[in-house]
Design brief:
alpha/beta; Rossmann fold; CBS-domain; five-stranded parallel beta sheet; three-stranded mixed beta sheet
């Protein structure tokens, strides 16, 4: 069945701590979810649970007293109840619409009392559930970044289009241009290079500072260089990347080819930007 509401995750004690983590993982991977403390639910927080929601209740024994009120509420209002327990014959399992039956495991502590192995099992089940839902809804890295804009995760998922030079900041010259035009364009945009395109914005080459220096050394004439057409000097071996790719992929291409810039293309292979290594450094990517 397709859930129209949210997943309310609940549990008491150590199961409650695991339930909080499961709720957070679900929410961060595209399944709206939040944690409700079962004791607080008995004192007004049941109003947070709506008819279209589903309640995921965690209890290793399946007979946690504090869960009674929230379980009863789901039965009264026909709210989907999913039990995560190790006991199929427990009151929670019997009342539930769906059962996630965990294995019965011995706790790791010497007394066999402190919730250790059982909470680890619940955590594994919760993560498996979250990833299964992620795959079922085709949750993408772009969507993941939307929920993780900060920190290392957010940085790793930055896309090329977010930091590339584009529009008026993009150094472009046409095929019939001279090197004078290319040098002026590259100097004005301060990127050390100029992309050579045709009238349809298809890239035919790129002129870098290195290309210019090599040409001047070989020809020993700066005057001749200025009037030379760009096709003579440009490098036709253009390294490109699509604008929706991750910046990390761009850095990998630059490192593999010992270069400092990539021409950025859209889905139609038209030039839309230039990604420079300095941009990656400023974004904390390199």
């Amino acid at each position: 069945m397709a859930l129209k509401g949210r997943v309310i995750v609940t549990g008491m004690g150590k199961s409650g701590h695991i339930a909080r983590k499961i709720a957070a993982t679900l929410a961060s991977t595209g399944t709206p979810a939040y944690f409700v403390h079962p004791a607080e639910a008995s004192h007004g927080d049941l109003g947070m649970v709506m008819r279209n929601d589903a309640v995921l209740a965690l209890s290793s024994s399946g007979d946690t007293e504090e869960l009674v009120d929230i379980v009863t509420y789901t039965r009264r209002h026909k709210i989907l109840l999913i039990a995560m327990t190790a006991h199929a014959d427990s009151s929670l399992a019997i009342q539930a619409d769906k059962l996630l039956l965990m294995p019965k495991v011995e706790e790791a502590c010497p007394m066999g009392l402190a919730p250790t192995s059982s909470t680890t099992s619940a955590l594994v089940y919760g993560d498996a559930l979250a990833i299964t839902l992620l795959e079922r809804r085709n949750f993408t890295a772009k969507q993941f970044h939307k929920f993780h804009p900060g920190g290392k995760l957010g940085q790793k998922l930055i896309r090329v289009e977010s930091i590339m030079h584009k529009g008026e900041a993009l150094p472009i010259v046409e095929l019939d241009s001279t090197m004078r035009d290319a040098i002026i364009e590259a100097n004005s945009k301060r990127l050390g290079s100029a992309i050579v395109c045709d009238k349809n914005k298809k890239a035919h080459g790129i002129i870098t500072d290195g290309d210019l220096r090599r040409w001047m050394i070989e020809n020993k004439s700066s005057t001749k260089t200025f009037e030379t057409d760009v096709e003579t000097v440009m490098s036709k071996n253009i390294r490109t990347i699509e604008q929706n790719k991750l910046v990390a992929e761009g850095i990998e291409i630059m490192n593999a080819n010992n270069i400092t810039a990539l021409v950025v293309l859209d889905k139609n292979k038209q030039v839309v930007g230039l990604l420079h290594l300095q941009d990656c450094l400023r974004a904390g990517q390199a």
